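$ ./design --mode recover --in tokens.txt
reading tokens...
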């Protein structure tokens, strides 16, 4: 059992740092903590693997100083093997790497474990999940993108939804039904219950829910838990 696995049995909500109000990051961190968030999701984008730039090691290091919640770094960059150590040193507890971004997927997942972080493999909405059966023993979590990664506030890709149950089936088949399934992008109040019903247990909460402009973290996290039965 470790950070990416379910230590509390139930739903986990990871508010997404890129969706915070940047004029009050510290206050929002305290609010989400108080509201019962289970981790902080940090989107790392390199402007090449995805068409946007976002957070880096300095931000992760700063957040680390201000929270005890697990920090979940979602690396949307090519060749993540070149960066896992810096993010671990900055304070990442969970490191997700994209299956599409490296040639030696198993080696990098293994390296993440060896440097003391919890390894997770991420898939873009169109990427076949077949390789998962070969790395099921090397991960604590699988992350399924519900949108093309790169931006907050995008529309859900409907074809991404059935991939949650497909993923759960592959994991069960590999004897790893204990591996958590995380969903990221457009995890809305409307769609989250269906995602959980299909097998997701870790929700990245952004502008579609907890960090929507007309929401407060407290109300948003309560609402999400109520809707999803967690
Ligand atoms: C995409 C990002 C976003 C974000 C979630 O790469 O990971 O999915 O955190 O935010 P919303 O809810 O705006 O899609
Ligand atoms: Zn993300």
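writing sequence...
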């Amino acid at each position: 059992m470790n950070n990416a696995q379910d230590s509390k049995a139930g739903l986990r909500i990871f508010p997404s740092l890129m969706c915070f109000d940047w004029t009050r990051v510290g206050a929002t961190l305290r609010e989400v903590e108080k509201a019962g968030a289970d981790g902080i999701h940090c989107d790392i984008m390199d402007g090449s693997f995805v068409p946007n730039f976002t957070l880096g090691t300095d931000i992760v290091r700063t957040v680390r100083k201000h929270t005890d919640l697990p920090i979940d770094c979602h690396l949307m960059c090519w060749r993540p093997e070149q960066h896992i150590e810096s993010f671990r040193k900055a304070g990442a507890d969970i490191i997700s790497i994209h299956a599409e971004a490296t040639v030696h997927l198993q080696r990098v997942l293994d390296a993440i474990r060896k440097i003391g972080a919890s390894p997770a493999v991420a898939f873009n909405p169109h990427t076949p999940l077949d390789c998962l059966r070969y790395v099921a023993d090397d991960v604590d979590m699988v992350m399924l993108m519900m949108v093309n990664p790169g931006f907050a506030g995008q529309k859900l890709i409907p074809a991404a939804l059935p991939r949650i149950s497909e993923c759960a089936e592959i994991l069960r088949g590999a004897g790893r039904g204990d591996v958590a399934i995380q969903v990221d992008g457009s995890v809305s109040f409307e769609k989250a219950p269906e995602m959980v019903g299909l097998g997701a247990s870790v929700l990245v909460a952004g502008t579609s829910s907890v960090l929507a402009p007309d929401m407060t973290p407290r109300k948003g996290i309560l609402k999400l838990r109520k809707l999803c039965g967690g």
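exit 0
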